[in-house]
What we know:
Elements: H1 32-53, H2 71-89, H3 96-114, H4 130-154, H5 162-192, H6 198-217
Helix pairs in contact: 1-2, 1-6, 2-3, 3-4, 4-5, 4-6, 5-6
Amino acid sequence: MATTPTPLMTAAAPSTPATPAMRTPWPPEINQYTIKFLIGLVALLLPVVEVILSRGAITSISESYWYPDSYWSRNIFVGSQFAIAALLAGYNGTSSKQLWFGKVAALAAILIANFPCKCGRDAHEIVKGVHGVSAGVMFAVLAWFCWDFIQRAKTKLHDARRTAASRRIIIYKACGVGMLVAIALFVGHFVFFPDEESLILWGETFGLVSFGLSWLAASHKLPGITHSSERESVVGVGPARPG
């Protein structure tokens, strides 16, 4: 005679915990490549925007602070310096040298914005020499970054990333030369041709464009010079690998 099982006689089958779905790793809270991209973009656009706003009347980018016919010139000049300073202050890089040189350049940018040069009509210096020294320090640090970017790119010449790395090295070297040209123009103006104010404008333009292009190249967001394994999207979501 068959026995009908009772609840006491029936053992409850052990439940199997649900396996959580694998999640895509969340991107880093601060993306160093997006910081590089924004720094490069601001630096690259600054001389173009200032020359347009002043209708070509300025003899240096720093003169935008005193340009009398457009408040936009001063606002964008000061705002750009503070933006670059904030981004550099938040950039820790991939080595202690990058970290600290970034902080030095950030401080220099703040001093450039707060201590204008004696250039243009009705211009005066708040503290003599601070603007010029700060600008010199900033360009020197940025020239060092070009060299450091080259050294990092060289470590990728022996694997599948070599083609993209080689292209970036060419850009970094050209930007390094541009930085040296900028410094030479500054020296030429202050030492040999003090009446040639246009040398300052050309020096600043060479320096800022070189600065901007080198950091854009290092942002891993530009096609053709970044290997697919390192490519970052413009909005900052990507492999987020050091380098």
